[in-house]
Design goal:
Blueprint lengths: L4 E5 L6 H9 L17 E7 L2 E7 L10 H16 L2 E7 L6 H10 L6 E6 L21 E3 L8 H11 L2 H5 L7 E7 L5 H9 L17 E7 L2 E7 L12 H16 L2 E7 L6 H12 L4 E6 L10 H13 L7 E3 L8 H15 L5 H14 L12 E8 L4 E6 L7 H15 L7 E6 L2
Parallel strand pairs: 1-3, 1-4, 4-5, 5-6, 7-9, 7-10, 10-11, 11-12, 14-15
Antiparallel strand pairs: 2-3, 8-9, 13-14
């Protein structure tokens, strides 16, 4: 699901990082009395009252910034204002309204995003009346908290989550379309792929890495089915994630993966399969999203009749446990295998949503389990008596038996292999859960 982004903004040293850490329950951001210690954004997925969201802690906002660091912080916050679904503007009761607060408020008046005003350092009830001076900022009623003490945090989170509605989560999603997130490093051909399918330059394409910054949603109709192509910014190597705008590009890419029904991960075949590629494939599957790995620029590889088989063999060996992930070799430039890629993505989408009848699961798997029983543990015989599929998208299978906690990892992998051997689930992560028999 598309998680809403909540950004905390405010001038330096009003308590943003303390508030952030209080909510995510760990000391993640550096907290110090020196203005500007939070130079980069910190973010975390957290939840309250059953609603999940991405919380972003920005550096202190300085509207009249002059030096390079202050300008960088201001740019970060400007990006946050553009990207976030809800903005939390934090002020400091002990200093009252400052000129910087007024400048930030003026900036916030120009956005149509919801803004919640937080007055921090309201350490006791006797000081609550002082907080009403901040009504003069014109941003609604102040929400009074003490980030250090935790005072008022729960009440504020109740207010915040009331704003996190299904409308925010679903506003960017096309209901009936298969959503394909087109992901990969810079300059691997993602935008060219979209433009080729559409027959026009919907996305700016240049040889310069980083041309595409924001995800661009583009509808497509193919073989009487609706698709939504989500073209994302190129993923950078971690060592290169320095520029202000890169952080939100990466965050948007991860959101695009969350939104997707299928992820198409593009790789420049001339650069080969890298550790970062394997990491992204792993993280996508861990996020329970199906994936197709696309090796583009196949036209640049010198080939003979054995080349494709050799590449598939070498890549398969490096994929290890991810043998179920399909590979396809394309040339966007020569328009080769692009529609085959759409067919493959559709097949993986159907696999992701596939349901196996309970009777079929038990008829096929129970005899196999009987012949290959789980190992006994400390003299205890471990049995599995019943299997059912609990859900689809992603598929989850439940195995009921007498000692669910004693099923070892290698036997769990054996069961997953049996499921894939009989029903495949191409490109699709599956989960197994083990429960006590009724």
């Amino acid at each position: 699901m598309n998680l809403p982004i909540i950004a905390i903004i405010g001038r330096p040293n009003v308590g943003k990082s303390t508030f952030f850490n209080r909510i995510i329950k760990k000391r993640d951001a550096i907290v110090d009395d020196t203005p500007g210690v939070t130079r980069d954004r910190h973010y975390a997925v957290t939840d309250w009252g059953g609603k999940s969201f991405v919380l972003v802690d920005t550096g202190g906002y300085l509207p009249d910034a002059r030096n390079e660091m202050d300008l960088a912080i201001r740019e970060q916050v400007d990006i946050a204002i553009e990207e976030a679904d809800i903005l939390l503007f934090m002020v400091d009761l002990t200093t009252g309204i400052t000129l910087t607060d007024e400048a930030i408020a003026e900036r916030l008046h120009r956005t149509d995003k919801p803004v919640l005003l937080i007055v921090n350092k309201v350490d006791n009830e006797s000081r609550e009346s002082e907080a009403y001076q901040f009504l003069n900022l014109g941003l609604g009623d102040p929400h009074m908290i003490s980030a250090v003490q935790g005072r008022g945090i729960g009440d504020f989170l109740d207010v915040l989550t009331a704003h996190i509605t299904e409308q925010i989560r679903e506003a960017r999603e096309a209901e009936d379309a298969i959503k394909l997130a087109i992901v990969g490093k810079e300059n691997v051909g993602k935008s060219s792929f979209v433009n080729t399918l559409l027959g026009k330059d919907r996305v700016i394409v240049t040889p310069i890495p980083g041309t595409t910054r924001d995800p661009i949603d583009t509808p497509l109709k193919f073989k009487k089915r609706n698709y939504l192509l989500i073209d994302t910014a190129g993923l950078k190597r971690r060592t290169k994630v320095k520029e202000n705008i890169v952080f939100y590009s990466q965050l948007r890419t991860m959101r695009s993966i969350q939104r997707a029904d299928v992820v198409l991960y593009f790789i420049d075949v001339t650069q080969g399969l890298t550790r970062q590629d394997l990491r992204v494939v792993s993280e996508t599957l861990e996020a329970r999203k199906p994936i197709v790995v696309v090796f583009n620029k196949w036209d640049l590889i010198e080939k003979d009749s054995h080349t494709l088989h050799q590449w598939e063999k070498e890549i398969s060996e490096r994929f290890g446990a991810y043998q179920y992930v399909p590979l396809i070799f394309t040339s966007v430039l020569e328009k080769k295998r692009l529609y085959k890629l759409l067919d493959l993505a559709t097949e993986v989408y159907e696999e992701y949503r596939k349901h196996i009848p309970t009777s079929e699961l038990n008829r096929v798997l129970l005899p196999i389990i009987k012949e290959n029983s789980p190992p006994a543990v400390k003299g205890k015989e471990v049995k599995i008596n019943y299997i059912t599929q609990l859900k689809t998208a992603p598929p989850v299978f439940a195995f009921f038996g007498n000692h669910p906690d004693l099923i070892p990892q290698n036997y769990r992998r054996f069961l997953e292999r049996q499921i894939r051997e009989h029903w495949e689930f191409k490109g699709t992560p599956i989960s197994l859960v083990f429960k006590s028999k009724h």
